[in-house]
Amino acid sequence: MIRRIICAVLRVALRVYFRRIEVTGLENVPRDSAVIFVLNHPNALVDPAFLLCLAPRRVAFLAKAPLFSMPVIGSLVRALDSLPAYRRQDEGQDVSRNTESFVAARQLLARGITIGICPEGVSHDEPRLKTLKTGAARIALAAASSGEALDLKIVPVGLYYTEKTTFRSSALLYFAEGLPVAPITLEPDGTPPREAVRQLSDKIEKALREVMLHAEQEEALSLIGRAEQIFSAAEVGEHDEEQLLARSLELRQRFLEGYAFYRAHSPRRIDAIEARIARFEYEMKQAGIDSADLSLPPTAARTIFRLLAQVLTCAGLAPLALFGTAVHYPAYRFAGYLSRRLARHEQDVVSTFKILSAMLLFPLTWIGIAVVSWCLVGWFAGVAALIVTPFCGYVAVRFFEEIDSFFGSFVALALFVTRRRAFVRLLAERAAIRREILALGDEAAPPIKAV
């Protein structure tokens, strides 16, 4: 019961913090046999929260041992069936006790509860995959070879965030095809041979690289981030919105393959693409328009009708949105302040602190408004305030998103009407850059499997 409540609260928090969450590859998760999920770890406690809330199977995590001794958090991780992982970098931890956790993990697998592991062993903000720990391979081989978990598969899970520290950004959770774990002959003490562990760990690392964006150079990551603005804008209208994140990740991976090849063999081509992107960004800035708003209006009448509909929607939501903004703004600002102070420039934990702070401060705000309403008007007003106040907060979020969309569409329409030639030229240039980026990856290596 406690687990269900925790997962329900976390699911709501994720849906509010992230504007769009896409989950793909669910068909790759076995429904009955034993499963170990391995996932990359770029965003601290947000990463396991995604798997806990959105995986199609019940998941128990291996979590670092210090979490179990922390007030409140320790009770939460125990309620989620988590097992302690003892790491050398944690002061005072006895790594030999990992044997107990590995045995417990095998028992959970035998009971049909899946295991979630971040094999990097630590959350980080680097663009590359860190060296993997061997825990996942050791648990898998021991479980499959002892007969405790037959038909065991290791399912690689990729987490991809567009802007992980930004409120109302987007996230993709991608389940790849599972890796079968063949039984082997164990050592006399019941542990798998070191060579078998190394080979399986290498397979896990390769599989994780294929489901995540892996950049070896900061300059590559920067250029990919800028090119992604072209990817996402050009993809709108060609694919359903639900598939845009998966397509964006695929295009980024293809561009990265081409970048690595041509940076080594023909750096002038990379320099030319970067210069072209920079020129396009400058022209867009001069025009006062975002790439996402750069599209030909279907008809003037439809565009004007859509803008009028946005105006009416915003006008109708304005009273509730203004109340929601006024009530939640202090907690919103304080949550941001706390996250920056606690993160101490470590970007991989910013989102975690933002979400945890909001999960504490916003309910306190709702309760405070409800208590004041109860005291001033009566119990009915208090109950109504407890329901209406969170709703107004969500309306405020949607209101400002609609305002932003309206101004973007309005500026784009004005540019189309007053400077149509410049508008069409920017549209053509964006399409040309996108084609060149796709060609870069296609020429350097065969296209990767679509996600």
Strand and helix map with partners:
Elements: H1 2-17, E1 18-24, E2 35-39, H2 46-54, E3 59-64, H3 73-79, E4 83-85, H4 98-110, E5 114-117, H5 135-145, E6 153-161, E7 169-175, E8 179-180, H6 194-211, H7 218-235, H8 244-265, H9 267-287, H10 300-343, H11 350-376, H12 379-418, H13 420-444
Parallel strand pairs: 1-7, 2-5, 2-6, 3-4, 3-5
Antiparallel strand pairs: 6-7, 6-8
Please tag this protein with its features.
451 residues, alpha/beta, Glycerol-3-phosphate (1)-acyltransferase, 3 domains, 60% helix, disordered C terminus
What this model shows, in words?
By secondary structure, the chain is of the alpha/beta class. The chain folds into three domains: 2-211, Glycerol-3-phosphate (1)-acyltransferase (3-Layer(aba) Sandwich); 218-287 and 430-444, no CATH class; 300-418, no CATH class. 60% of the residues lie in helices and 10% in strands. It is built from 13 helices and eight strands. Strands 1, 2, 3, 4, 5, 6, 7 and 8 form an eight-stranded mixed beta sheet that branches. Strand 3, helix 3 and strand 4 form a beta-alpha-beta unit. Helix 8 crosses helix 9 (267-287), helix 8 crosses helix 13 (420-444) and helix 11 (350-376) crosses helix 12 (379-418). The longest helix is centred in the last third of the chain and has 44 residues, at 300-343. The radius of gyration is 25 Å and the shape is globular. Residues 447-451 have low confidence and may be disordered.
